[in-house]
């Protein structure tokens, strides 16, 4: 895009080029960050035009002008007003307001580099002043599956699989209900395998499943699973393919699931979508492409109790479950397992909590270096995210020092505890 210092350039013309620069993939169209930034830039533009904000807000365009928002309309006071809007009228949490303003500030810096603006207004302290302070939320405050929660959830999915599989196996081969019972057993096996992978591998959910915003993340396939070596190949956050470990507890659930599913090819997703609507549309489309008439397609579907079973028989490969789909599965399983969650942000065992829970296990058991390798993170980042563990250990060390130098406080605490009991 050519450089321009023209104050009359519409602000919106820069969005496409900026978003492409920060996007992922060959054409820069993918990535969560890109999508979040695009949403916030659109919101800012609508606010600047007077289409969002308080009832008395008319925007930043002069009253006598009938045009789009231009770079000449931007100033330090505009960004200060928007920071105030984020902090008050939008009702955002402290960290969310900070994040949204950071999106805008990053774009503003890019505009300076590209010659659209002479000054990085958003970065000035007076513009940022209305933003709320950080709420002090520490990494250790974020959800991490506790050993008790992990045990409750894994026990629940094991029991569900055992029940549905036993019912399927005890059904006669020719019984009309056998296919339906096989479907329920497959679904329970999938759920069990998904929970075990999330709970014990610490692989990011976006590395396992399909992300509609990023075409490179099409979900784990069976050809990328090696239970003999105990590894899977995933597309990492660092934008490259890499291997991740499969601990021993994960191997059997994956093997049993594959034996029951019997995928027609290794290119099938490990965790396919079970959505009836999605599978129904896929089956109809694929069979039509193979030359079947509508009546023939209807007959084929009537012969199968579930479209998934027809897809398996005809090797109609479905898409992987999405990351949103996995969250819905975990919500359903958390509720059916009657797991009590005390988390202000999530009422269920969220996928990132499984990863953080495994991080807790590794840091406590083997230290930061081993945990960093397993989590595919830098050791410095792992130390920051699990700093509460080190603080606890330092507290224990401090207690030992206190006992050695001045045991009186510890003895007094012990006496008070005995009296309380």
Automatic annotation (TrEMBL):
GO biological process, one term: DNA recombination
Region of interest (Disordered), ranges: 126-152
Keyword check for Repeat: no
Residue stretches making up the Tyr recombinase domain: 156-400
InterPro entries per record: CB, DNA_brk_join_enz, Integrase-like_cat_sf, Integrase_catalytic, Integrase_recombinase_N, Tyrosine_recombinase_XerCD
Ranges for domain Core-binding (CB): 6-112
Composition bias, Basic and acidic residues: 126-140
SUPFAM superfamilies named in the record: DNA breaking-rejoining enzymes (SSF56349)
Molecular function as annotated in GO: DNA binding
Protein keywords: DNA integration, DNA recombination, DNA-binding
Claim: Repressor is one of the keywords in the record: no
Domain of life: Archaea
Listed name of the protein: Tyrosine-type recombinase/integrase
Organism classification: Archaea, Methanobacteriati, Methanobacteriota, Stenosarchaea group, Halobacteria
